[in-house]
Amino acid sequence: MEELELAENQMQQCCVKVDDSLKLDAHYWSIQYDNKTTAWDLGMASPALVHFVNSIEDKSLKILIPGCGNAHEADYLLSKGFENITLIDIAPTLVAQLKLKYAENNNINIVLGDFFELEGSFDVIIEQTFFCAISPLLRSVYAQKMYALLSESGVLAGLLFNRTFEFDGPPFGGNIQEYQSIFENAGLEVIEMAPTNMSVLPRLHSEAFFKVKKSNKPIPENTTVTNACSIK
Ligand SMILES: C[S@@+](CC[C@H](N)C(=O)[O-])C[C@H]1O[C@@H](n2cnc3c(N)ncnc32)[C@H](O)[C@@H]1O
Q1: 175-232 pLDDT, tens per residue?
Q2: Which of 75, 89, 111, 114 to mutate to test ligand 1, by most ligand atoms within 8 A of the CB atom?
């Protein structure tokens, strides 16, 4: 009975339609890079992230960019003198290219792998079209993994789509209220989450900038389930 109630709660939290047959694995993402179907790639760091990076003074902070893609934010971080940047992506062909590109750069550590299996501790984690690329079924796990990866004073910041999409993603959309509760349920305190105008033109009025950190409050008791929408 308790399990049934829990399942119903979880279903209610999951407001995005998901096609279960779509397997968003390494193969899927590699094909997108091979076929150059990478419309998400801005070709530069997003203005909101440039603004955020400009606000960080300590260049020695340990920075993570999950689902980094072509890692334009990493180029910007390097241009600003940051020294400790980790990139992780699940797509082998992309990661092979990144390893070539940054072969001579000791400030960049590149990991081919699944974000959900990454270990470590980071002072800053940058979100850029990674959250919207994973299945919404995994959003709570994403938030819990971020909690585990953040150092005690660490910050996760970036952009989230504050809109829905007509098709059955990726990208998967959502809204600020939904995101706020996902992060809070994972023990993260939302420092900032608001619509931003610092977007590239095609994404104008559709993004929210957010910043979260580990909360001092205990994690709410009803969040023991790791996958908010795992009921098929
Ligand atoms: C929509 S793309 C965004 C890429 C990049 N952040 C950008 O904005 O150009 C999503 C990226 O996440 C990667 N990805 C998807 N699932 C992943 C996972 N579980 N672990 C690591 N990377 C993943 C994909 O290979 C892809 O490069």
Answers
A1: 999 999 999 999 999 999 999 999 999 999 999 999 999 998 777 666 543 433 332 2
A2: 89
Domains, the chain, ordered by start = 46-223 (3.40.50.150)
Q: How far is the CA of 131 from the centre of ligand 1 (A)?
A: 8
Residue of the nearest CA to atom 4 in ligand 1?
69
pLDDT < 70 positions in the chain: 1-21, 220-232
Check the CA dihedral 129-135-139-144 and report its sign.
Answer: negative
